[in-house]
User: Fold this.
Amino acid sequence: MTTATTSREPQRINTVAARLDSILVNRGIDPTAGPTEDPSERVTALELAEGRIPPRYRGALAGHRQVASWVDEVTHEARPGPSGTRGIALGPSLLIAGPTGTGKTHQAYGAVRSLLTAGVRLRWEAATTADLYARLRPRAGHDAERDLATLSRCPLLILDDLGAAKQSEWTEEITYRLINHRYTHLLPTLLTTNLPTAALRDAVGDRVASRLAEMTTTVVLTGADRRRHPAP
Ligand SMILES: Nc1ncnc2c1ncn2[C@@H]1O[C@H](COP(=O)(O)OP(=O)(O)OP(=O)(O)O)[C@@H](O)[C@H]1O
Ligand SMILES: [Mg+2]
Assistant:
């Protein structure tokens, strides 16, 4: 029975392919033409993504030189998908460090906007570490493992305020599993922290700090707290 089904398979595929071709021709599309990128798709992706960016950062620009060059690198590495648009690929990560209010979260969302503007199709997730732990805390009717898998596997993750939340063995384990997955699979991750290197190591543990040291380039933002001293 298995053999009979398999021998009919190529014929079935040809019939389906012919049907698809005729649908495309009826719609005025040349089925032999390669995938093309519709500029309007790019605008739509940007609009959809902007809808998910918190309003405060919706107009953010990745103006910092090192953040802009990370965007260039990731854009360059992006691979064409089935629709012809380029999807985010494996690549480097960035740790944006600096005191309160220097613009770390602004740069992180600015980077997402720049990638989308450059036409890179990406699925992304963002969370502060405090929200991450709250979201993953075991509770009835919630599949925390699935949630952790979604964040671990998504092509681009913003993990904001690393080391800022109160730590416990449980938070260390969650951070380790998340970072280790992204480290192992070379998934681009934008991290921000208020902590200097040694304090961050104490906060997240040496195993996480060691992986971050290898997988990220550190960008240090300096200057005044922009909330208290906005640019004129
Ligand atoms: N390059 C910039 N141009 C204009 N406004 C900016 C810029 N960078 C940051 N801001 C504004 O400054 C404020 C603080 O920025 P942001 O929230 O990114 O700081 P942060 O470093 O993430 O602070 P925290 O450590 O408290 O999380 C926000 O209102 C943000 O919109
Ligand atoms: Mg921030």
Remarks:
- Strands lie at 79-80, 86-87, 93-97, 120-121, 124-128, 156-160, 189-193, 216-220.
- Residues 104-105, 160-161, 192 surround magnesium ion (ligand 2) (CB under 6 Å).
- The chain has two domains: 1-33, 36-220.
- The longest helix spans residues 2-26.
